[in-house]
Amino acid sequence: MKLTVQSDYTLRVLMHLAVNSKGLVTISEIAQHFDISKNHLMKVAHQLSKRGVIEAVRGRSGGLRLAQSPNDINLGNIIKFIEQSSVMVECFPGGKNGCILNNACRLKGILFEAQTAFFECLNKYTLADLVVDNSPLKQLLLETNAA
Amino acid sequence: MKLTVQSDYTLRVLMHLAVNSKGLVTISEIAQHFDISKNHLMKVAHQLSKRGVIEAVRGRSGGLRLAQSPNDINLGNIIKFIEQSSVMVECFPGGKNGCILNNACRLKGILFEAQTAFFECLNKYTLADLVVDNSPLKQLLLETNAA
Are B62 and B56 contacting, i.e. CB atoms less than 8 angstroms apart? Predict the structure, then answer.
């Protein structure tokens, strides 16, 4: 059971921006910070920007920042949005529907129910729950930026 | 959010064996039936056999059959067993732990809680729930065997 790398990177970007809320952060800084692909991050930033969760300020001293309060950024909604193109099994909407049992199989409904339980659990949390009063996280995310 | 192809194939094999409970079914028959890789199915059958869920009868007229009643084959347990080598995000046990936030990140706990909710939901169901009184499924799985 695997989330896409986009979800992983999305959550890192959001935590990074939440901790560095007083300024703008560039994609290069985030990529360097986590030692991850800049291309992947650009796609993630584009998605988040399109959804209005972050905003990109253009120009020489530009960068990214949150466009919403961390209290309003729900983890379930964000992960569901990013995972929308990933299908749990191939009979799910968007899958190849390559199974001959498709119309007779009860499993799809059961897996959908379990997936709903997964997202309902995440819906209880916001970005604020990850960063508020989390000094070790702040230290890690601010230290590298200052370096 | 994706399950491994092994989980998908495992559930197809189990449904196939449950419906054809009066005889033995070969891996070749299942592969042909679903138009999927025989090699993948052999790995899946090996795992299920090791766990005591199915048994393999050797010899010329050999094949696979369920070693437990469909009522005793819990879907949550089976999928959890098959998915054990798949990590949701790389900071989960078995992952590469390649994130610098690893020790300060609250997300791991939240994702683990959501994963638990997913499996708890599946724990409510057994293989019997998929096959009992499911005539369309039986028709699909028996028809091809008779062909």
Answer: yes
